[in-house]
């Protein structure tokens, strides 16, 4: 009923857009964009956006993806200039233009009518792009007002509530009156998506909208995007550097390298048979769960140096460390268990196909979250954990709050999690003699319990992956091991000796043996010091070396991280993200430690850079027999780096054991949900 | 949050009062001697000291003075023998007039020019304005005052009076023309800072993700500036304005001296010359209170303009 009403309304306003009949929404041809007075950022870029389909624009940071996307809105960032090409909005895509029109020739005023209304944008980082001083409901409502959506304020209010529930958020007044800082990261991103879909645009541009979200939230956001674009016949442009995400969401792919498109085509084809070497390199860099199969169930660590994409050689390399992994693994079992959506097309497409087939009209979704369709389908695919998943799908703010993890999670943790970690710990015993042991660790700030009853062993030559969402306490735990966080109860032992809680009270030798690599290579190196200066600080602390010896040791460390000693006199500003993180690793290694604590060291890096850093860590571990604690929220890395897997949820170890065993047979619902949400390449099928 | 800031302000003022009192105690000279002159007999001096409670321990005197402050009694002037309140009332109001005029002109001009300059960043008009404000900011207030005097009241044009006429029993604002030069000087001193800081803040805000997002949402440019950008600039800009206003309270001393303006600054200079401890103390407290209040207002504005701080203060 509502549907017919809407039709009538639209007819009355003359805004019926026959989108389904249009083959193309936007055609970008031969676009050249350059730095003012400088070189080209985009070089002859052409692509087409089609209604109901998502084109993924793939490339590393700096490849010009965002510039190309913003050019579709005739928006160039400061310092850039248009050098040529057209961006044609095809006839029928907008209500302002009967015929096709080149957006790049439109006046600012005419362009403004299209921005946000006909062509909408979802930003990369909602924390920066939502206005912190405006209520979220107002931020959606103002788009509607600016584009004169609906006849009156009441209709616009209704639309705000409707679009909120379309993206799976609560639509009540109280929620609309919240400020962005009162929402979790995932909720903020869905506000950004709601803002973009509010005016029912013909084209939507998504600029890495899931970067910085944890897998479960990313999964939810991707699902929302997929449903809304297919359901409303919106042409989507999705920018990303992660091919696993492409496999999950895109119909077509265009791969960008240095401002030019080097390969494009249907997603399935490009991911299956990549032609350009760069595409292949990107594909190799994706840490998919199926890496396990490629490695024949062997250990993750590959001893062969000098290969940038480590997952190629897994098959051929002999296992070097842990005997725990020798148990043969039936590959298919692993794949099925680890990634239930492995049977390809089914999973990705199911979001769309199962979404209330009889009611394609957006209006009907109003009182029911759009994710219901997905719920059923995913449950069918997963088979195992339908109940738990269903709960997560509902747009209850509390659930999402947990996914995005706000500080408020703390107090509830103690009561919320049943103590289910006992058998996990037992299963982990055996193997090498531990270098570092954590016993009965508990940490609380007042009533907020951050860590509770943690037992963990780090053995020489082994990596323990510490997995958990932001706020689960994994960083706190790693800082405690490194002596950066005092105030805990329990013990941290190094070779059987109890360590003082604070580094200040540890001996120089103890400090030397445990080194820490920080998450962001952009802030952990002092920009005013040369790499050499930064790297020799730990050596000065330990003492016993003169200037030349220190410099030699630094040069060796730089060689060891494959940067080369030529970097010794450079400053961090001259280095790329991956190079900086290598330098940070070198700083940790310069003292020849026996334990390396890596705190999310790849999460600020592009996928392909991440691959090379991980490869480096594996080699170093092999060369030096390091014990490593690798903290991450990316479970897809598990098989590639870790021998043991520890899953932390709300301060408790809910799963702990050999990586293989945990992935094959996850005991805890949280681990299973993590596994289920990992985007993998297999979905492209 | 706001209550906390208020409490901190009160503490700061108390600390300032203690400092002011202790430091004026350390000043050379004896108030009794200052009142009675060099010829006074030791008996008379002793009697006056008794009367002024100068023989009490310092903390007793501090608390009685502090008590006086709270009840609005600033004490007795050693130079005139009259009450400090009566002595300062006209001077404070004269200075307030000058400061209010300067503030009312400087704040809107500074904010508008700063915002305008930020929006036209890199263009000629922005560069001219930036260069001009940099030059002005580099000039000390007495140079500006002297240049204005030369320009407007002596050598070039003779439009305005160069000194203030204030016969006893007359208010400065009885001759509005004589207010122009001193207030103009103050405005020219504070405006450049306001322009520069507003410009910097606005440029940061205009470069932010939410302003780009607002543009990509297709909002009219006016709405982008006033609804999305300005609220974020209010907090930082309020701090700058507060610092400039607080500077006015101190910087006015030089400007008043230059134009022979009978305000706070002149009273301060006279009081120091006369070893009039009570007046120095009172003036120091007035200026300190002005600093604290202005900064408090800026902080409150900052809190109110930022929903994150505002909602925290509520919970």
CATH structural class of the largest domain in chain A: Alpha Beta
Number of helices of chain A: 29
CATH class of the largest domain in chain B: Mainly Alpha
Number of domains of chain B: 2
Low-confidence stretches of chain A: 5-20, 292-431
Give the helices and strands of chain B as they follow along the chain: HHHHHHHHHHHHH
CATH homologous superfamily descriptor of the largest domain in chain A: P-loop containing nucleotide triphosphate hydrolases
Give the helix level of chain A as a range of percent: 25-40%
Protein structure class of chain A: alpha/beta
Question: Any overview of this molecule?
Answer:
The complex is a heterodimer of chains A (685) and B (315). With 685 residues, chain A is an alpha/beta fold. Chain A folds into 2 domains: 21-285, 3-Layer(aba) Sandwich (Rossmann fold), CATH 3.40.50.300; 417-679, Rossmann fold (3-Layer(aba) Sandwich). Helix content of chain A is 39%, strand content 19%. A 6-stranded mixed β-sheet of chain A has the order 6-7-8-3-9-10, sandwiched between helices. A 6-stranded mixed β-sheet of chain A has the order 16-17-18-13-19-20, with helices on both faces. In chain A, β7 (203-207), α9 (215-231) and β8 (235-240) form a beta-alpha-beta unit. In chain A, α8 (185-197) packs parallel to α9 (215-231). The radius of gyration of chain A is 26 Å and the shape is globular. Residues 5-20 and 292-431 of chain A have low confidence and may be disordered. With 315 residues, chain B is mostly helical. Chain B folds into 2 domains: 2-70, no CATH class; 88-314, MetI-like (MetI-like fold, Orthogonal Bundle). Chain B is 76% helix and 0% strand. Chain B has helices spanning 2-26, 31-36, 42-51, 58-70, 84-119, 124-138, 141-152, 177-206, 209-216, 221-258, 264-273, 277-305, 307-314. The longest helix of chain B is centred in the C-terminal third of the chain and has 38 residues, at 221-258. Chain B is flat.
């Amino acid at each position: 009923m509502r549907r017919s009403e809407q039709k009538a309304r639209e007819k009355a306003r003359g805004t019926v857009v026959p989108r389904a009949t249009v083959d193309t929404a936007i055609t970008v041809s031969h676009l050249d964009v350059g730095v003012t007075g400088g070189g080209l950022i985009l070089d002859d870029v052409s692509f087409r956006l089609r209604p109901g389909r998502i084109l993924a624009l793939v490339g590393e940071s700096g490849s010009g993806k965002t510039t190309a996307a913003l050019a579709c809105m005739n928006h160039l960032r400061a310092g850039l200039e248009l050098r040529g090409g057209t961006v044609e909005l095809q006839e029928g895509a907008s209500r302002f233009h009967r015929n096709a029109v080149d957006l790049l020739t439109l006046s600012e005023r005419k362009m403004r009518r299209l921005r946000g209304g006909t062509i909408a944008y979802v930003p990369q980082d909602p924390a920066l792009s939502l206005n912190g001083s405006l209520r979220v409901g107002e931020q959606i409502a103002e788009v509607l007002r600016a584009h004169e959506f609906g006849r009156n304020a009441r209709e616009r209010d209704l639309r705000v509530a409707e679009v909120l529930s379309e993206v799976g958020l609560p639509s009540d007044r109280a929620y609309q009156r919240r400020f962005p800082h009162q929402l979790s990261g995932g909720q903020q991103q869905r506000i950004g998506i709601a803002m973009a879909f509010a005016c029912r645009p013909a084209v939507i541009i998504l600029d890495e909208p899931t970067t910085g979200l944890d897998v479960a939230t990313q999964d939810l956001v991707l699902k929302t995007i997929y449903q809304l674009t297919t359901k409303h016949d919106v042409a989507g442009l999705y920018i990303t550097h992660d091919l696993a995400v492409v496999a999950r969401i895109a119909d077509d792919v265009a791969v960008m390298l240095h401002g030019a498109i080097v390969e494009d085509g249907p997603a399935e084809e490009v991911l299956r048979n990549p032609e350009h070497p760069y595409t292949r390199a990107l594909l190799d860099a994706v840490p998919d769960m199926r890496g396990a199969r490629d490695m024949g169930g062997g250990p993750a660590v590959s001893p062969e140096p000098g290969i940038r994409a480590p997952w190629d050689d897994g098959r051929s390399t002999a296992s070097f460390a842990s005997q725990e992994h020798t148990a043969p693994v039936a590959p298919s079992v692993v794949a099925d268990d680890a990634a239930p959506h492995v049977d390809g097309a089914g999973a990705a497409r199911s979001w769309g196909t199962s979404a209330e087939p009889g009611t394609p009209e957006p209006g009907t979704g109003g009182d029911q979250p759009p994710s219901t369709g997905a719920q059923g389908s995913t449950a069918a695919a997963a088979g195992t954990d339908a109940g738990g998943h269903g709960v997560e799908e509902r747009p209850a703010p509390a659930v999402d709050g947990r996914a995005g993890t706000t500080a408020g999670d703390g107090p509830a943790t103690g009561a919320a999690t049943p103590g289910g970690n006992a058998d996990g710990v037992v299963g982990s015993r055996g193997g090498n003699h531990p270098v570092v042991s954590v016993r009965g660790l508990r940490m609380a700030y007042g009533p907020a319990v951050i860590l509770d009853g943690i037992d963990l062993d780090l053995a020489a030559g082994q990596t323990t992956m510490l997995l958990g969402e932001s706020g689960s306490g994994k960083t706190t735990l790693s800082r405690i091991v490194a002596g950066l966080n005092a105030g805990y109860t329990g013990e941290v032992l190094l070779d059987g000796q109890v360590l003082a809680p604070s580094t200040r009270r540890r001996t120089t030798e103890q400090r030397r043996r445990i080194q820490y690599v920080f998450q962001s290579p952009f802030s952990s190196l002092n920009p005013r010091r040369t790499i050499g200066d930064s790297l020799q600080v730990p050596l000065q602390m330990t003492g016993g070396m003169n200037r030349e010896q220190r410099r030699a040791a630094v040069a060796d460390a730089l060689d060891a991280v494959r940067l080369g000693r030529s970097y010794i006199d450079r400053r961090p500003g001259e280095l790329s993200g991956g190079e900086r993180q290598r330098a940070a690793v070198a700083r940790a290694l310069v003292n020849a430690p026996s334990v390396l604590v890596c705190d999310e060291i790849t999460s600020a890096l592009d996928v392909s850079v991440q691959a090379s850093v991980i490869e480096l860590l594996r080699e170093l571990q092999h060369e030096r027999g390091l014990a490593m604690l690798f903290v991450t929220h990316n479970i897809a890395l598990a098989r590639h780096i870790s021998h043991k897997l520890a899953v932390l949820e709300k301060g408790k170890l809910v799963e702990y054991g050999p990586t293989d065993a945990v992935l094959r047979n996850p005991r805890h619902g949280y681990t299973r949900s993590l596994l289920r949400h990992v985007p993998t390449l297999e979905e492209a099928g | 949050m706001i209550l906390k800031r208020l409490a901190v302000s009160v503490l700061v003022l108390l600390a300032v009062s203690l400092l002011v009192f202790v430091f004026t105690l350390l000043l050379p000279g004896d108030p009794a001697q200052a009142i009675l002159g060099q010829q006074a007999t030791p008996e008379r001096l002793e009697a006056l000291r008794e009367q002024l409670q100068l023989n009490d321990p310092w903390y007793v005197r501090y608390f009685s003075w502090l008590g006086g402050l709270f009840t609005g009694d600033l004490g007795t002037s050693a130079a005139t023998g009259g009450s400090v309140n009566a002595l300062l009332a006209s001077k404070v109001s004269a200075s307030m007039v000058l400061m209010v005029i300067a503030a009312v002109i400087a704040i809107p001009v500074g904010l508008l020019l700063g915002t305008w300059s930020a929006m036209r960043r890199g263009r000629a008009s922005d560069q001219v304005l930036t260069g001009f404000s940099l030059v002005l900011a580099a000039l000390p207030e007495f140079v500006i005052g002297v240049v204005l005097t030369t320009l407007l009241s002596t050598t070039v044009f003779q439009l305005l009076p160069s000194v203030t006429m204030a016969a006893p029993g007359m208010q400065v604002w009885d001759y509005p023309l004589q207010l122009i030069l001193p207030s103009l000087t103050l405005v020219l001193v504070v405006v450049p800072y306001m322009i520069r800081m507003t410009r910097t803040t606005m440029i940061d805000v205009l470069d932010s993700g939410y302003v780009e997002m607002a543009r990509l949402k297709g909002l009219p440019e006016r709405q982008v500036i006033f609804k999305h950008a300005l609220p974020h600039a209010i907090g930082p800009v309020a701090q700058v304005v507060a610092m400039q206003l607080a500077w006015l309270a101190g910087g006015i001393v030089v400007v008043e001296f230059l134009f022979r303006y009978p305000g706070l600054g002149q009273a301060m200079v006279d009081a120091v010359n006369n070893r009039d401890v009570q007046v120095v103390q009172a003036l120091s407290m007035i200026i300190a209170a002005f600093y604290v209040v202005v900064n408090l207002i800026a902080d409150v504005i900052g809190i109110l303009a930022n929903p994150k701080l505002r909602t925290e203060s509520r919970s």
